[in-house]
Amino acid sequence: MLQDIDYPISVQFDFDEGAFSPVKTRSDRRVSDLKMMFHDQDAVQRALAAGDPLVYQILYHPFATSKSDMALGVSRIFPGRIGDEYYMTKGHIHERDDQPEIYFCVKGEGYLLLQTAGGEFRAERWTPGTISHIPPMWAHRVVNTGSDMLVFVASYHLSAGHDYRLIEAKGFRQMLVERDGKPTFVDNGRW
Ligand SMILES: [Fe+2]
Question: Which CATH number fits domain 17-187: 2.60.120.10, 3.40.710.10, 2.60.40.10, 3.40.50.700?
Answer without folding.
Answer: 2.60.120.10
